[in-house]
Amino acid sequence: MRNRPGVVFAAFVLLLLFSLSGCGGGSGSVPPQQVLVHVSVFPSQATVAAGATQTFFATVTGTANHLVTWKVNGAIGGDATSGTIDSTGLYTAPATIPSPATVTVSALSQADPTKSGAASITIAIGVAVSPNSIPLNIGGVQQQFTAVVSGSGNSAVDWTVNGLPPGDPNTTFGTITTSGLYTSPNAIPNPPNFQVTATSQADPTRSGSAGIAISAGGPGVNQAPQNAPIKLGTSGGNANDHSAGFCCSGTLGALVTRGGTDFILSNNHVLARTDQAIAGEPINQPGLVDNNCAPATPVANFTQKVKLKNNPNNIAPADAALAQVISGEVDPTGAILQLGSISGGLAQPAPPANTTVTAAIGMAVAKSGRTSGLTCDTIAAINVTVQVQYENTCGSNSTFLVTYDNHVSESDSGGAHCLSGS
């Protein structure tokens, strides 16, 4: 048989190629595995009240470019029907619940717009209660709560106190009417912190709540309006103490009798508008800050002050002023709020001691005032020199310093409340 040189040569070449491959002499390489871009959105599901907001976060992996484009139901930035979303992922639900009530928020990778993550949002009725948190005292103190329902034409709500509806015989936590008027209990409940809740009648699964903290004292007592004759240690101040959109006031401190005439003793910056008042200006209770910046009931008239400004070396003996009491408007015993014994869980008013003693380090002291209520402390130092900065007028950005000497310093133990009365 004759030889076939072409076939033999082809077989030789094939054998050589297999041989080279087995020896690792080939020059080919396998391409690396491609890294895929992935986008995830957190939270992946949410229920958002109509008109409310929800922040979403996007995580992008597989690329150094972590920027995303936000969409709502496929529309960049969303729209009024489905809600809107900004570049930071802050979603704002529409004021009216859409149909269907579920919308989709998605984040598209700007590095690879074919890759995205998504979250599902259910738009629901919202219930907002105002005020959302408030401290109240025992003894029948009333507070009107209001509820605003969004996403429904039915604004009616059902009120409960700590889960108990209006008319429930258990009044441990106080009572509430069908219109949201709450009345505090006569004793501190356990726990003293609980909630008033308004539930939508259109959708009983939707509700809003407000927190209540019940106490036997606290600043709420001192800030409330009073009927004549008022007790001292209460909110009050000059009716003219307002400027530049601000109003100011403080505490009507104590009763002083001079020549058979009664005066309210307080600070210059409370009664005299920081040296600005003229004799006869009305002093109100409560002060402007506790009456929406509107003058309340006059209980005294400004009389005189210890001057703060332009003293020699800018040293003043005291921040003090007097206002002559309007007949019948102030308790003639000089009773101060919360200085008395505790009755029914509430610290009662009582006049201060009718004798004076020399201040000494370690001596126990108590004060009752508009901002902090009743607090107790001990004297830490005497003959102290301090500097106090004052605004020239209420709300002013211009200030001045006054130096006081021979003053008493408290230990600043945190303003612990006096539990036993005095």
Plain-language structure description:
The protein has 3 helices and 34 strands. Mean pLDDT is 87; it is low at 1-30 and 412-422. The radius of gyration is 37 Å and the shape is elongated. It is mainly beta and 422 residues long. It has 4 domains: 38-124, Sandwich (Immunoglobulin-like), CATH 2.60.40.10; 126-215, Immunoglobulin-like (Sandwich), CATH 2.60.40; 230-325, Beta Barrel (Thrombin, subunit H), CATH 2.40.10; 342-410, no CATH class. It has helices at residues 5-22, 219-223, 268-271, and strands spanning 38-42, 45-49, 53-55, 57-61, 68-72, 75-76, 78-79, 83-85, 90-92, 102-109, 116-124, 126-130, 133-137, 142-144, 146-150, 157-161, 175-176, 181-183, 193-200, 207-215, 234-238, 242-243, 246-247, 250-252, 254-258, 261-266, 282-285, 297-305, 321-325, 342-343, 346-347, 364-369, 373-391, 399-410. It starts with a helix and ends in a 12-residue tail after the last strand. It has a 7-stranded antiparallel β-sheet with strand order 24-21-27-28-29-26-25. A 5-stranded mixed β-sheet has the order 2-11-10-5-6, with no helix packed on it. It has a 4-stranded antiparallel β-sheet with strand order 3-9-8-7, with no helix packed on it.
